[in-house]
Amino acid sequence: MKEKGMIQQKSWLKSYAYGIKKSVPVFFGFLPVAITFAIMARGVGMSSMETIAMSVFVFAGASQIMAVGMIGSGAGMISIVLATFVLNLRHVIMSTCIFKRVRIKNFFLKLISALSVTDEGFAIITTEDEKNCNIPFALGVITLTYLSWVFGTVIGVIASNILPKIVADSFGIALYALFLALIVPNVKRNLRLFITVIVTAVINTVLCRFIDISWAIIISTLAGAALGTFIVNDEPKDNAIGEVTSV
Fold first, then answer.
1. Reported pTM
2. Does pLDDT of 232 surpass 80?
3. Of 3, 168, 171, 183, which is least packed with CB atoms within 10 Å of its CB?
């Protein structure tokens, strides 16, 4: 019985280590974004502890950067919460897919997994051979991706106290670079998605002239999501931008 327990423990540790190994590229990818987030957060007046605590308890890169941008523009708490909620709705589906693939039954482990779902972690787990997708593997992925984000935030907080103000302020462009990096690869392959993005941007630009910018973001995001529900689908490669003449 004792020998069986030792074998199970070794198997658990092996799967956990494999999950960490698979996450190494994400570790180095998260660091610069987390550093940028921290510098931006300090730039809008957040304290060092508030910045680090946000990464520790939220752990959502795009949402944190968007929230910081909204804080900098003077948005209220309710609008920030609503905007980040809308942006993170995809995590509901992502968490469901991970639970089904990994077959997590323990409620406590489900809470940890749900808190730590990221686009990159989701990609690692859902593309891995199903025979390797067990709880220790998922926890290994979560461990390294989470620590890299928090570690990068700490580095960013330290850097914000060292870098000249003009350099720190220039990191504000990271918000736009991050979202462009998320959008461009997809819209290049899907004309309807490109149209949805453009319409959403136009709606946001118009609304910003009449209402608070934070509410303009929320309304335009919801409008774009509603439009995408009806017109966006998986298009063949020959229907990419630059290769079609009509929708």
1. 0.69
2. no
3. 3
> What letter would DSSP give residue 105?
-
Q: Taking the C-alpha atoms of 17, 36, 70 and 42 in order, what is their torsion angle to the nearest 10 degrees? A: 110
* Structure tokens that stand for 86 in this block: 């809308």
pLDDT tens digit sequence for 205-226:
888 888 877 677 778 877 877 7
Confidence of residue 153 (pLDDT cuts 50, 70, 90): very high
Report the greatest alpha carbon distance in the chain.
71
Banded model confidence at residue 166, pLDDT cuts 50, 70, 90: low
- Rounded alpha-carbon distances, angstroms, from residue 28 to 23, 25, 116: 9, 5, 17
Contact 73, 214 (CB under 8 A): yes
- Residue-wise DSSP of 160-212: HTTS-HHHHHHGGGHHHHHHHHHHHHHHTT-HHHHHHHHHHHHHHHHHTTTS-
Tokens of 121: 């972690």
